[in-house]
Amino acid sequence: MESRHPLVLGFFLLPGPNSSRPTSFISVSSEGTDLQEGRWGNLDETLSFLDHQTVIVAGSSKGFLLCVANREDNMTYIICNPVTRVFCILPKPHKPYRHVAIAFICKGDHISLDGWKNHYEIVRAGVPNPNGLFTTFEIETFSSTSGEWTESTLNSASPISLVTANRPAFVMGDVIYWHTTYSTLVAYDRTRDSVEVIEFPVNDLLQRLVCWSNRLSVSEGKIHYCMHNGLNIKVWMLADIQRREWILKHKVSFGKMFQKNPRVVCSPVVISVQCLHPQNSKLLLLLLHQVPYWYNLKNKKLSIICNSMGSRCLPYEWPSDLFA
């Protein structure tokens, strides 16, 4: 039986595309700290155990990471467990794509640290041109059950442009949610072979143009959209997926943020919105000068997590049954 609520151990802090820094792990729980300090597991946060000099982390699911070894053609994928240092290089997909939108799904729970009794899938959509609009995308799906890639087609009633850089999909049930470049969210239901386009709550052209940083994330089982425009941070929740109704949950000005946190000296231009805590929608992860901070949306307090630096953060969860 799968745990309903995997434990958030921490986040992998990922370097920028031109950075020489390796990945690093930041703990946000006592179990994550114990892991980082070697009290359990054998964490290699830099992923040095992989047989490739450079990898890009493209997804995270239930203790496993999906990595890409060559971003030029997106043909070499590696599934790894950074705690057990076990990894598997997948067979190559059928067709090279310089740009892909990708989703990583791991089904089942770890009953031991090796973790290879799980079933996992990789779903990737080939994007011919990241700046173009398309109604049809080639889909390739890898299943650990068959050990093969299968091909299918995604058809959208309206033209869409899938985001391919640094924005891994998130999955809820049987639905994959992909970002687009035009302030919409694509919901791809593979069981029904259907595609729905959900507009972001900020769909006014002027407001989109002044958006400095934005992210979608899942927190407490709900989809949230976070953005900042240089003046304030806003957080919406998708209250009703069918009706596509967004509710504005939080709005805070940077003036009030820094007034409440006088020791933090920072310009909004170097603030990047990352994600909400998967299990606490009052905690927003920000990068200030590429350093991770929690921003408590309730008491308005900023707290530094660590001094490591990166360009984006990826949640790292582990089945809570291991700590029962």
TrEMBL record:
Residues 53-287 form the F-box protein At3g26010-like beta-propeller domain. Signal peptide: none annotated. It comes from Buddleja alternifolia. It comes from the Eukaryota. This is F-box protein At3g26010-like beta-propeller domain-containing protein.
